[in-house]
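User: Quick sanity check before I run a bigger batch. Here is a single chain. Can you write out its predicted 3D structure?
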Amino acid sequence: MLLRKFNFELPSQNVHSLQRDLRYASSEGSKMTKISVIIPAYNAEDFIEECLQSVVQQNESDLQICIVDDGSTDATFDLLRHWASADQRIELASHTSPKGAAAARNRGIEMAQGDYIAFLDADDLWLPEKLSMQLIHMDEAESAFSCTAYELCDAKGMRIGRRQVPKEVDFSRLLNNNTIGTSTVMLRRAFLSKHRFPDLALRQDFALWLQLLSGAATCSGLNTTLTRYRRHGASLSANKLKAAKATWQVYKSLPSLSRRRALQSYANYLVRTTYKAFSSHFY
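Assistant: Done. Predicted structure follows.
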């Protein structure tokens, strides 16, 4: 399969300096931090190879790449087996029938052995510096949970927008506006603990982030574009009506959230999404 190539704009930070800092830390006698990358895949033959290429070309090479094929009916699993035979860091699991993104990610979590876990969807891409820069950011911020800014692109890889992230996200802020892109998330495995993605068809990631931040914890934002998030007709979030219904299910599922606050948060969500749709149509 012919791989499409994308031209990434390198972040403004001094990448070479960051890499030098990583090599220095490693030379001081501590083993390089191992990251478990979790990729759920379902009928992703058009995008999975580009996704994996962006992972294996990361500057941070000490990786465990956990891929869960969720019962694909196209060539996805055959492509994954080829990649797994060529790179010993790739560990492949599969479901005999589709169980959904939550189940696939949760199985990947069970496979994970790294100190950190990073999530990536099969149709998304990382810049080469993504993991190394995020590790440094988490260390400097003393954070166990982080996300980054990301770029939006269409099915052909054409840029259609960018999403920024605030410096810090707590439960209240996340409740009003989910700025955490799943393919940008990296967290310490110990922080994740026994938390798992709930069994929801959509927005299971949003529900998990709310669980993780329901106490005093926060998510640290690195406002540098290190991920490319692809929007296309087959993506789960493409259907706005389904997404709206799923968001309400998330609010209703939170035991600590009163019905009044759930309604207020949902109203804010509807206003924001309507405004975005209106703006994109006229501008």
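The longest strand covers residues 219-230.

User: Great, the batch can go ahead then.
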